[in-house]
Amino acid sequence: MAKKQHHEEHENHERWLVSYADFITLLFAFFVVMFASSQTDKSKARQVSEAVEKALKEGSSVSIPPAVAKVLGGTVDDKGQGNWERFVVERSSKLVEVRLDPDRKIFVESPVNPSCRVLDLRPISYLTKEGGLALVVDSTFASPVNFRPLEHGADVVIHSATKYLNGHHDVLSGVVLGTAPYIEEVRQKMVVWGQSPDPFACWLLERGLKTLDVRVARQNENARRIAEWCNARKEVRHVHYPGLEDHPDHEVARTFLDGFGGMLAIELVGGGRSAERFLRRLRLIKHAPSLGGVDSVVSEPRFTSHSHLSSEERAALGVPDGFLRVSVGIENVDDLIADIEQALK
Asked: Are 22 and 41 in a shared domain?
């Protein structure tokens, strides 16, 4: 009996932990619906509406122009109204009539990288439930400590375990969370393709999970302090952090998140040149593209995630030159602020 119980526990564990490569495989099966911001004009609004409508009716992936596809948590209807909830309500009955393919999914990210926008999952969940779609949420930025999308209508949740779950910048892995039918599909691909994490990577990830709660609590507090400090500096044009009251999704974040997170972004006055100078002068904070670890790191999206776009296209997406993404670690917050202050001078 004990042996059987151990076998069942091992199988349950396998259902929840899969490799980073496997969650990438799963994403290939998803079509991605991109959302435009409330500032999008009417002609672009029609583009988004028609593209989404086509995807919902035909079950095919669609390409939305980068200038339109602002993954910032809101969208527009074909009348140019910037309200995602209205979009869902107006489309809900039509979705039922279409009888959507049950194998199709909607994929969103919250909080959004690198803008730090936070999505209200309730209307999106309503859309997926009415249309018979699965709602897939990438919640890497929040970590399970701050946000658990399964509690708010998501069917599947993915995390880059390389980030907060591991927390030490020394492993490459990912997880897919959800009910048994979804996870079984992923597990079968892992068995066939052999892309499972090696034992040492699993050990490193387990080590990181033991301190996840205390790490994230410290990162939440450090990020809040830094965001408030930066918000008062004349060298900083704008601070993107959901914990600030002037953040467009502050109320959504208060509703859904247990903590505002350790990720923030700042826009420097002076654009790209100011960003380059700032990065050269940092002493404690590291210039690196990773995030979620015990060490604070900063990256410049124009050379990483958004390097394929022109300066104008990046600006249209809300990532202008001078935009820096900061992953706040667990160092002494006064030391971090002092490092930012001397780099700004």
From this structure: yes
Say if residue 181 is in the same domain as residue 219: no
- Per-residue model confidence as pLDDT tens digits over 3-48: 444 444 444 433 333 333 333 333 333 323 323 233 333 444 444 4
Q: Would you say 327 and 298 are in contact if contact means Cβ atoms under 8 Å apart?
A: yes
Q: What is the pTM of this model?
A: 0.73
What pLDDT is stored for residue 57 in this prediction? 47
CA distance 169 to 163: 7
281-296 confidence digits (pLDDT tens): 999 999 998 999 999 9
The letter for the amino acid at 233 is R
Query: What is the C-alpha separation between 242 and 54, in angstroms, rounded?
Result: 33
**Long-range contacts for 270-277 (Cβ within 8 Å, ≥24 apart)?**
270/235, 270/322, 271/320, 271/321, 271/322, 272/302, 272/321, 272/322, 274/235, 274/322, 275/300, 275/321, 275/322, 275/323, 275/324
241 close to 169: Cβ distance less than 8 angstroms: no
Its domain, for residue 256, covers 212-344
**157 and 289 together in one domain:** no
Average pLDDT in the chain: 77
Confidence of residue 195 (pLDDT cuts 50, 70, 90): confident
Average of pLDDT values for 203-227?
Answer: 97
The sheet carrying 175-178 orders its strands as 105-109, 134-138, 156-159, 175-178
Bin 271: left if φ > 0, else alpha if -120 < ψ < 50, else beta: left
Select from 165, 184, 207 the last residue of a domain: 207
